[in-house]
Amino acid sequence: MATVKSSRSRTHAAVTPAKYANRDTGTKLEEKLTVFNSDSFDADSFVQSKCHSLNEKEIRQLCSSLVDLKKASAEEMRRSVYANYTAFIRTSKEISDLEGELSSMKRLLSTQANLINNLAEGVHVDSLSDTSPYNATNDTLNDKTREPSEIEEWLAEFSDNLDVLLAERRIDEALSSLDEGEKIALEAKQKSTLSPRVLLSLQTTITKRRKKLADQLADIAFQTSTRGAELRAAIVALKKLGDGPRAHSLLLNAHHKRYQYNMQSFRPSSTTYGGAYTAALSQLVFSAISQAASDSLTIFGKEPAYTSELVVWANKKTEDFAVLVKRHALSSSAAAGGLRAAAECVQIAFGHCTLLEARGLALCPVLLKLFRPSVEQALEANLKRIEESTSALAAADDWELTNPPSSFRQSAMYQHKLSSSAHRFYLMVQDFFEDVGPLVSMQLGGKAMDGLFEVFNAYVNTLIKALPGSLEEETEFDGLTNKIVRMAETEAQQITLLANATLLADELLPRASMKLSSFSQANYKDEHQLRTDRQSRLPEQREWKKRLVSTVDKLKDSFCQLHALELIFNEDGDSNLTADMYINLDGNADEIEWLPSQIFQGLFLKLNTIASIAADMFVGRERFATLLLMRLVETVMLWLSQDQSFWDDIQEGPRPLGPVGLQQFYLDMTFVRYFASQGRYFSRNLNRIVGDIRSRAVSAFSSTGMDPLSVLPEEDWFTDICQDAVDRLSGRPRVANGERDLNSPTASVSAQSISSVKSHGSY
Question: What segment(s) does the record annotate as region Disordered (predicted)?
């Protein structure tokens, strides 16, 4: 024992100093650590002060030991986490179970508190039937002495049973119990089977429990986890309780929360193109609207108040949808001129909207209002791109008519010969109408056709600029002054310009515009609406074609003016059609050779050349050449009719118009009529112009006092000369037995004069 005791004492003696030594060491360590708690602590200065006496090897050893200590600490923490992980899970589960038990206890305590409050309120209810002390005393004595009836026994259990049903959320049974209580209260009131005090207590209990059930149902419907059949059951129950407006608002709010939850999970990638994004978003948004409309119609029917609230809610969701589509799909497409991409987005959205019309929701006008600015921007950008592309192609066009390229034929479905720029222009127009077709429902058909007319007008102005004589008029065409166009030098190239514009305006563009009608017909299911739309659209298309043709008339006028000026003026700018060529003839009557004047012979040769070129280019379209020649002849004759200096010299000049001059003038006008009628381009307008010119010349001659009938030969004389001139200029001389017909009025015409006329035909 002594040994053990001594050993214990030694152990105690050894431990005690160590304990106090550790306490002293801890105190010193805390004092040493206070330096790190200072706000002015500087790590670099501290390291320098402590390690300045250490050499490099000692510093490396210190760093290595610190790194090892760090790794050991991390490993110890990892082992601690693994060792305590099971305990952590078990503790978390116990905490969760405890929370559930506490919630149950809270509900039970709340139920008991409500029962106590209801009992306390029932004790203090006074009788409403008779306030006299005598009657009250009698009622109290009667209640104590008589046995309770079945209704009174049921009433005693009604409140407790109803509270239990509400606490256990047995909604259907609670509703049935409330309905039964209301029936009993109504019968008791009608038959006076219950005392007023008991009846009032029953009615108060029903009212409070009804409100409590309504609040409970509202809380259920408000929760995000409530959906489907459970949501509809709660809304139906709330509506049965007489709180329809609140129930409908909660229904829409529940669908809104579900919509928001789905939108949070909807994250389009940067590689998703506009159509796919619009389709996915449309499916999400409009399915939510459709489900909300279905639930509203099923539960609430078509009552105006609820329908109006549903429409407002659906419009708001549609507006939000339109904003997202514009931000992520339409804006970029519109800015880049991607009309097809924009049309695809709009068509997808309108397709989903149309499906909702069966439920009474017309949401397409909302989308139309919000999408229209972006689509119009894409439309304008696309038209501008067509105009710029066509202008660039015109700069490299060789103005030769060719068949459609093999790559175009299958898609273009036409075989007309055009130049390269016109082929490309028509192909772009076809693509444009295919892209615009789905947008007819947005009432953009008229705007598209107006825009395309402006583009075609710009193309015609480009063709006008390609005419050699139009260089001085560049400033007349807006936007074309800085554009380079290859000149159409030859007559064949110039006729190619006319062919491009005429074929596009008369046939190709109107045919392409019919695609809008086909898209419009596809949108109508009612035959009456389809027939009405077709009747209203046909006049618009006819008017649009007239506008195109009137634009081509500018090109035809420029072409005719160019060639008319080439005939009338020489290279020095002097006129070849003056009054002197008729007035001076009477001084040289002996040297007269009866032929049409050289300018009109040149006109005849030019018309023949143009007719020959046009016939080769437009097989089966002779009317085009006929109208062009008719316009050219009329242009020359109008110039003569409106040349005031010419008529001033004829009517008031220093020398009057003599008999020979009148005969030559009359011959020239007859020659114009003759070859125009022979070439089948003689018009009423030309006949009127020529008649007016001859009348003015005859009037000028009559003013000298001479009779024009006395100097003018018979009409056959003029006709024979004209026929002979036409034959000779055409290379078909009239001969009889190998010689000229000496009886011809033109027998005096020399071969030299004919050769000079042919050389002059280079006009």
Answer: 1-20, 733-763
**Per-residue b/e over 485-505, b at no fewer than 16 CB within 10 Å?**
beebeebbbbbbbbbbbbbbb
CB 293 within 8 A of CB 314: yes
Tell me which residue has tokens 């309120």.
121
Contact 391, 422 (CB under 8 A): no
Is-contact 371 326, C-beta < 8 A?
A: yes
The reported pLDDT for the residue numbered 354 is: 85
In angstroms, the CA 761 to CA 100 distance is 113
Nearest partner of 587 among 518, 633, 540, 656, judged by Cα: 656
224, two tokens: 């995000």
Report phi then psi at 418, rounded to 5: -140, 170
Q: In the prediction, which pLDDT does 516 show?
A: 74
Cα–Cα distance between 499 and 552 in angstroms, integer?
Answer: 10
- Residue 199's contacts (CB-CB under 8 Å, 6 or more residues apart) are 185, 188, 189
Distance CA 526, CA 117 (A): 67
CB 349 within 8 A of CB 367: yes
* Three-class DSSP category at 294: helix
Helix/strand/coil for 334: helix
Q: What are phi and psi of 674, to 5 degrees?
A: -65, -55
Picking from 480, 467, 497, the residue whose alpha carbon sits closest to that of residue 399 is 497
Q: Is the predicted pLDDT of residue 696 greater than 80, yes or no?
A: yes
CA 515 to chain centre: 18
pLDDT tens, position by position, 218-274 = 777 777 767 677 778 778 777 777 777 888 888 888 888 888 888 887 776 655 567
Of 49, 44, 18, 56, the residue nearest 32 (C-alpha): 49
